[in-house]
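I'd like us to work through together how a protein chain folds, taking it slowly. To get us started, please write out a protein record for me. Label the sequence line and the structure token line clearly, so we can match residues to local backbone shapes. Once you have written the record down, we can walk along the chain together.
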Amino acid sequence: MIAIVTETLCCMNEEDCAAYGVSTIPLSCHVGRHVSADTIITEERPIPDGEGDSVPPSEEAYAARFAELLTTHDGVLCITASRKFSDSNRNASMAALPFGGR
């Protein structure tokens, strides 16, 4: 069985994630000095505009989720934003290296 992982930038709501068995890794949103971790980013709860920005999940966050999922799954399919759009792809790729193609 293959686990599916994506970052909260995917904009899937919590019900769809649960229904399709998709695991998400939260982004951090920075607005001024305030930092919050989203569970799911949706149209109702978007990434803040203006001075806000988002920070992709770290390599360590991906590695921890991959290790957790690989205890019960044969492999992990991780879907991220494009490499040109986000460092999330790089972080997920680097985190996957020790797992030998799983």
Observations:
- The CA atoms of residues 13 and 24 lie 10 Å apart.
- The mean pLDDT is 79.
- The two ends are 11 Å apart (CA to CA).
- Helices lie at 14-20, 59-69, 88-96.
